[in-house]
Automatic annotation (TrEMBL):
Protein name, as recorded: Helix-turn-helix domain-containing protein
Stretches assigned to the HTH araC/xylS-type domain: 176-277
All residue ranges annotated as the Fe/B12 periplasmic-binding domain in the record: 282-543
SUPFAM superfamilies documented for this protein: Helical backbone' metal receptor, Homeodomain-like
SMART domains attached to this UniProt entry: HTH_ARAC (SM00342)
Keyword Amino-acid biosynthesis: no
Pfam families in the cross-refs: HTH_18 (PF12833)
The entry's keywords: DNA-binding, Transcription, Transcription regulation
């Protein structure tokens, strides 16, 4: 077997995979090396004859073969994973004058499963890789970025193997690892001596390195984390009363009285008045949909992620906002936020991501898939004391949709069945109520295919369902809209040569419209307003094509 450290690794594909009550088991198959990185929830992975329990922050990698996923802890909601496929490229040295590389054939150097329970860095890299592949397709460095990120992920695994094999960590790495452990378990009674023992150095040296890496002593750093955690709980539950003891316990303080003293020293106000009166003026968002939600409320974030081409933000709206680059590392994001001093960070990112950012400011988590866009707007309204603005924005979109709905129904009656598909990485998805599904089903009142209608009856927030290309013909509607990504990886040739795709085209006839992912795969108020403006011309075009049949 070849030595994995003597190979480069090229990106092949990445997909977000979900398991939950509606679809508790998923079957995957890979002809190349792969990684599974758990971003939320937990479940069991069956691969290469073994069973692995994979929870948020964990990762598993293996060679070609079949993988079965089974969600376990359904109380936590969906189990979300990133499934990454990559190809080893063997470096060879046939002569001193020539260096060459070739894709490994036959026995892959990446054989046997490797498991890691503490792989938060891989989670961050997987998120960046998914963004690079699916959100930054217009970037001239799009392909190179994907390959570089896969290489970084493989290097993480190789470094993990070296550590488990006895290679000594650097002191900086050891201290950071101890601090990350503390960040994720604020309820434990941490002491400097415990942290130093974890890092393998003397307590006095741990204090020196902690100041070097964070600018704070271990005790002050821990207190800051706990106060910020308390602030998160206060802001997310503004209307509650009498729960200070519970907030103190969940933040790691020994009692409500002590929490109140430490909170007042750091935030300048006691917990009760902070919950009642504090309105953050400097907010940062780590994901672009939430940037758009803030702008829809008339709030300019201090620092924010922006989407790619085709989004609804005008160039002038970006002025005065520090952009968080999509591919910036977690530490890079943290340093950028520290420079711009937000009073609050909002994200739908994983718990390890939130733990890592909490030293900057309180980090409020607004779940993405479990909430619909109306609930997102209402949550932002409560958080920023802009409830009236949130209600008006929702009402304005409903008024716009009502006008567009009347025009659309004159072209196609409301009983028209519309099926929404997306082809991505040679996989097919039938859309539910999210993204373009919100436009056609929620705003315009059209009917999905009976199969999707049954799925939505079971899960009213359903994003999409993965189906086979063979099933596309079975789920075709009176009208069919298909989102295609740019022709990466020979997707066009793959579809043209696929008999199931041809069956779908024959059955759907001319009732197929191809849509630009940059315009239709969004789920926020700003993009909804633009999408509603484009619906009638799209339906008029379909109506004209059908009349010519």
């Amino acid at each position: 077997m070849a030595d994995p450290s003597q190979s480069l690794y090229a990106f092949q594909s990445i997909a977000r995979v979900f398991c939950g009550p509606r679809q508790p088991e998923r079957k995957l198959r890979s002809a190349s090396a792969w990684m599974l990185v758990a971003a939320a929830g937990s479940g069991a992975v069956f691969a290469e004859g073994r069973r692995y329990t994979l929870a948020s922050g964990g990762a598993l990698t293996g060679g070609p073969g079949s993988i079965v996923l089974q969600a376990e802890d359904r109380a936590e909601g969906e189990w979300k994973l990133y499934f990454v496929e990559f190809v080893p490229i063997r470096l060879t040295f046939p002569s001193p004058e020539r260096l060459s590389a070739k894709v490994e054939e036959g026995g892959s150097p990446w054989t046997g499963c490797r498991f890691a329970s503490d792989a938060n860095e891989l989670g961050t890299l997987a998120e960046r890789l998914h963004t690079a592949v699916h959100m930054n397709l217009d970037s001239p460095q799009h392909g190179l970025n994907a390959h570089v990120l896969v290489q970084q992920m493989v290097l993480w695994w190789l470094g993990e193997a070296e550590e488990s094999g006895g290679r000594q960590r650097t002191t900086d790495t050891a201290v950071l690892a101890a601090l990350r452990d503390m960040e994720s378990r604020l309820g434990e009674p941490w002491t400097r001596e415990q942290l130093a023992a974890k890092a393998g150095i003397a307590p006095a040296y741990f204090s020196v390195y902690c100041r070097k890496l964070t600018g704070l002593s271990p005790s002050v750093y821990l207190e800051r984390l706990r106060v910020h955690r308390a602030a998160e709980l206060l802001l997310q539950n503004r209307d509650r009363k009498g729960d200070m003891a519970d907030i103190a316990r969940r933040s790691g303080f020994r009692d409500a009285w002590y929490m109140s003293r430490r909170f007042r020293n750091m935030q300048g106000a006691g917990p009760t008045s902070y919950r009642r009166d504090f309105v953050p003026e400097r907010v940062a968002t780590l994901e672009y949909p939430y940037t758009n939600h803030l702008l829809a409320l008339g709030v300019k974030p201090a620092a924010a992620r922006f989407g790619g081409a085709g989004e609804a933000i005008r160039p002038g709206d970006r002025e005065g906002i520090a952009e968080i680059p999509a591919l910036l590392s977690e530490e890079g994001r943290k340093q950028l936020l520290l420079r711009h001093e937000p009073q609050l960070v909002v994200t739908y990112g994983s718990e390890p991501l939130r733990d890592g950012m909490r030293s900057v400011a309180p980090v409020v988590h607004l779940p993405w898939l479990p909430m619909n866009w109306r609930e997102h707007m209402q949550a932002f309204g409560r958080l920023l004391r802009r409830e009236a603005e949130a209600a008006e924005r929702i009402a304005a979109l409903d008024r716009q949709a009502e006008t567009i709905r009347d025009q659309a129904h004159r072209l196609f009656p409301p009983e028209t069945t519309i099926s929404l598909f997306k082809i991505e990485n040679k996989r097919c998805y039938l859309y539910g109520i999210r993204d373009m599904g919100c436009i056609f089903y929620e705003f315009l009142g059209y009917s999905p295919h009976p199969y999707m209608r049954r799925c939505l009856e079971q899960d009213t927030r359903l994003h999409s369902v993965e189906i086979s290309l063979r099933q596309m013909a079975d789920y075709a509607g009176d009208l069919n809209f298909v989102v295609l990504y740019p022709d990466e990886g020979g997707q066009g040739d793959f579809l043209r040569a696929n008999e199931h795709w041809r069956d779908f085209e024959v059955k759907a006839g001319r009732a197929i419209a191809y849509m630009d992912y940059r315009e239709w795969l969004h789920y926020d108020p700003l993009n909804f307003a633009l999408q509603l403006e484009k619906v009638v011309p799209l339906l008029e075009q379909q109506s004209q094509w059908i009349l010519t049949i």
